[in-house]
């Protein structure tokens, strides 16, 4: 980067687990609710932002450009551009990277970037055959013609809509569900079911410990609380992530049946990330904006990287994206003070750990001289991850950058870490962040 980009502040909503019905908030409700809180504590007016960029993987049809919708609902005014980006699981990280690019190009000094998704509101879809029936029914002119159409109606088509989220989580190139790509990694690196369940139980345990310690809900060391509570239309308060479970022990998780390969698989609902609603924002500023508004940065983004790989092995994206950053900055894996790797699946995170340890993989796939080594697990996702918190696809990329900064700030000033994420379609994203 030819000039520094600072993180000034950030916030997220509670992450609310989908319970097979539409959740209490639309995506724009969550984005606007958290964004208003963030902007209300700044020394400038929302209309002084240069732009608002919001990542969203599954916007509803009535708020397709949800970045603009959120900007207007947050009171940014008519003249602040708001737009939406989509890079599947890394949409929230893409919003930050898009902001960085515009700042580096001189097109903005003060940008609000984030991500959101309300996956509980993903639509149910009718099959093409059923859509054709509706079309023909509407084209029928007389009552008799319409009645005749009902004789052609298949109850199975009417009562068995396509689950839109399942289609969205299926790769159109390799034809695999995301969980099936995780099965590939478990097989490739011989990752046992027990190891996955133990990792998943650890994620829940770390989130519970962090909740009890107030790490998500309390301010500390110049940082506002990570989570801003939400109230629904009936006045009900949502203040905490609600997907975490104290009974998610390795023994209990071991009782769950495989979901993606029911015969010989090992990926279950318990060692996968949860389908969740949530949103997150970070406020980014150049040095000029920091001076102009008297801002106090809490962190700086040093570098970012995107990478591509086989869609059937998409979970290894963090390895492919983070490794070039390490190489550019002459860092070893454990030179960093903390890591956030989004927990799409336990097998996926563990697969990344194994790939870095593997001489052949690092030589053949990364072009390295050999294995990069073994990541110190005490530095990884220290407050838990998406297996316990959930993975609102559009928001997770922002959340891991924001939370990494919270972790680094607890450790002190000038601590460095990488936030990295795997991305459906065979991609990876990573960012190098330092606390100030």
At the first level of CATH, what is the class of the domain at 178-215 and 302-435?
Alpha Beta
Determine the fraction of residues in helical runs and give it as a percent range.
25-40%
Gap between N and C termini, in Å?
A: 18 Å
CATH homology superfamily name of the domain at 178-215 and 302-435: Thiolase/Chalcone synthase
| Structural class by SSE content | alpha+beta
Mean pLDDT: 96
Q: How are helices and strands ordered from N to C?
A: EEHEHEHEEHHHEHHHEEHEHEHEHHHHEE
CATH architecture of the domain at 178-215 and 302-435: 3-Layer(aba) Sandwich
The count of helical stretches stands at: 16
Task: Report the uncertain regions.
Answer: none
In one word, what is the shape?
Answer: globular
Molecular structure report:
This protein has 436 residues and is α+β, with helices and mostly antiparallel strands. The chain has a domain at 178-215 and 302-435: Thiolase/Chalcone synthase (Peroxisomal Thiolase, Chain A, domain 1, 3-Layer(aba) Sandwich), CATH 3.40.47. The chain is 37% helix and 18% strand. The chain has 16 helices and 14 strands. Strands 1, 2, 3, 4, 5, 10, 11, 12, 13 and 14 form a 10-stranded mixed β-sheet that branches. A two-stranded antiparallel sheet has the order 6-7. A two-stranded antiparallel sheet has the order 8-9. Strand 3, helix 2 and strand 4 (82-85) form a beta-alpha-beta unit. Helix 4 (128-139) runs antiparallel to helix 5 (143-151). The longest helix has 20 residues, at 193-212. The two termini are 18 Å apart. The model has no long low-confidence stretch (mean pLDDT 96).
């Amino acid at each position: 980067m030819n000039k520094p980009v600072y993180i000034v502040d950030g916030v997220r909503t509670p992450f609310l687990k989908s319970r097979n019905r539409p959740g209490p908030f639309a995506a724009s409700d969550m984005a606007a609710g958290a964004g208003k809180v963030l902007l209300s504590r700044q020394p400038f007016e929302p209309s002084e932002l240069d732009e608002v960029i919001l990542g969203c993987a599954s916007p509803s049809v009535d708020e397709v450009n949800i970045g603009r919708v959120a900007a207007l609902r947050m009171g940014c005014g008519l003249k602040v551009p708001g737009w939406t980006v989509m890079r599947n699981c890394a949409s929230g990280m893409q919003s930050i990277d898009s902001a960085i690019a515009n700042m580096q190009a001189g097109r903005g000094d003060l940008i609000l970037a984030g991500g959101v998704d309300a996956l509980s509101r993903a639509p149910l879809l009718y099959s093409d055959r059923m859509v054709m029936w509706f079309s023909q029914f509407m084209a029928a002119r007389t009552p008799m013609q319409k009645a005749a159409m009902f004789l052609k109606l298949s109850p199975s088509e009417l009562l068995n809509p396509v689950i839109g989220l399942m289609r969205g989580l299926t790769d159109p190139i390799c034809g695999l569900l995301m969980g099936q790509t995780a099965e590939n990694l478990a097989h490739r690196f011989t990752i046992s079911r027990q190891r996955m369940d133990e990792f998943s139980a650890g994620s829940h345990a770390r989130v519970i410990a962090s909740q009890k310690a107030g790490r998500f809900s309390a301010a500390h060391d110049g940082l506002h609380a990570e989570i801003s509570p939400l109230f629904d239309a009936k006045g009900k308060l949502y203040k905490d992530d609600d997907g975490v479970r104290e009974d998610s022990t390795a023994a209990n998780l071991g009782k769950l049946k495989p979901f993606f390969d029911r015969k010989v698989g090992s990926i279950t609902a318990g060692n996968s990330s949860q389908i969740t609603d949530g949103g997150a924002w970070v406020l980014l500023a150049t040095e000029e904006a920091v001076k102009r508004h008297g801002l106090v940065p809490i962190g700086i983004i040093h570098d970012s990287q995107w990478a591509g790989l086989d869609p059937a092995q998409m979970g290894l994206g963090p390895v492919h994206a983070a490794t070039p950053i390490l190489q550019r900055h002459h860092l070893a894996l454990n030179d960093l003070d903390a890591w956030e790797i989004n927990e799409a699946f336990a097998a996926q995170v563990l697969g990344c750990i194994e790939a870095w340890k593997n001489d052949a993989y690092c030589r053949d796939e990364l072009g390295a001289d050999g294995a990069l080594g073994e990541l110190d697990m005490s530095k990884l996702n220290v407050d838990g991850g998406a297996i316990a918190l959930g993975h609102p696809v559009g928001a997770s990329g922002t959340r891991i950058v924001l939370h990494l900064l919270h972790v680094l700030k607890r450790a002190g000033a000038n601590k460095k870490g990488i936030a990295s994420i795997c991305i459906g379609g065979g991609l990876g994203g990573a960012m190098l962040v330092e606390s100030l």
